[in-house]
Amino acid sequence: MKTAIVLGATGGTGRAIVSELLDRGVNVMAFGRSEAKLKGLLAEHHFNQRLSYRLGDIFDAQSIIDAAKPAEVIFQCANVSYTEMADRLLPLGKSIMKAADYLGKKIVIVDGIYVYGHQVGKGDETHPKHPHTKKGKLRLAFEALIFSDKWQRAQPLIVRLPDYYGATSQNSYLQPTLEGIAANRPTIFIGNLKTPREYVYLPDAAKMIVNIAEKEDAYRENWNIPGAGVISGKEIIQLAREITGNRKMVIPLNKTAIHLIGWFDAFMREVVEIMYLTKEGFILNGDKYEKRIGPIPKTPFKEGLEATLRILMQKG
Question: Which molecular-function annotations from GO does this UniProt entry contain (predicted)?
Fold first, then answer.
């Protein structure tokens, strides 16, 4: 891969993938709506000559077509907010696939695990998908759209991430906790502090995603992007306090608390239905990746949290 375009390049996963591609010597085009954010991304990378940007609208297939012509691979990292998902997720899917199909491009879709619904234990890419939430059902319809036979020339694949963390993270459930501890102020933890859960460190995820994208036979399939194991909220907070020396209160928010906050906050109102994920501890099986790609990058939680918190503290 010599040239790639990253849609949603200034988001959490997008920025991690941009960094990984640049580290590999790939020429990267960052695609987004905000010129200020895209210029900020260029500045973060010290105006690396292999990084350029393209302004465009993810819901306008023609703007993607115009921007993505030189790219060998399209990385789709743009997303829609919970409050807009019902109206905008499928139009987003149609736009990106229309562009990829017109150009005959490989396209890597970054997604999550809502499609599985209530699950406990470990699941591989063939695990049954029985979503019971609105978001899960929408994500399953999104998958069907991506792999639809109507796209004759596009070559899509979907990578599925669990919850994640890292310096570029923006909208993960762990983000407010780490930002609060880094700033030495009282903060929240979304979910049960005792449940061991899977988290993937975003730089590790980016490595795996690009490794998959480079394999010619990886397309038209789902791929798991597993983390380094499981860890409880209590353990995360303990590690973060040891790293920073900050010990302000961290308040766990259960489903009832989130529901009450949702009366006043539209985003939290949407979080309620996926709170089951904070209690069930579903783990992504990485056997397929190990057999066909290679060893799974597994940055230890302490090391990943230390790198993340150091940058958050510098920003603060």
Answer: aldehyde dehydrogenase (NAD+) activity
Q: Decide: pTM greater than 0.90.
A: yes
Question: Please, how many CA atoms are within 13 Å of residue 297, restricted to the half-sphere of its CB?
Answer: 17
Give the model confidence (pLDDT) of 284-300 as tens digits.
Answer: 999 999 999 999 999 99
Q: How confident is the model at residue 181 (pLDDT cuts 50, 70, 90)?
A: very high
Token pair for residue 32? 């987004």
Sorted by where each starts, the structural domains of the chain and their CATH numbers stand as 3-170+199-228+282-299 (3.40.50.720)
Instruction: List beta partners, residue 201.
Output: 165
| DSSP collapsed to 3 states, 22-74 | HHCCCEEEEEECCHHHHHHHHHHCCCCCCEEEEECCCCCHHHHHHHHCCCCEE
Contacts of 265 (CB under 8 A, 6+ apart): none
258 has pLDDT over 80: no
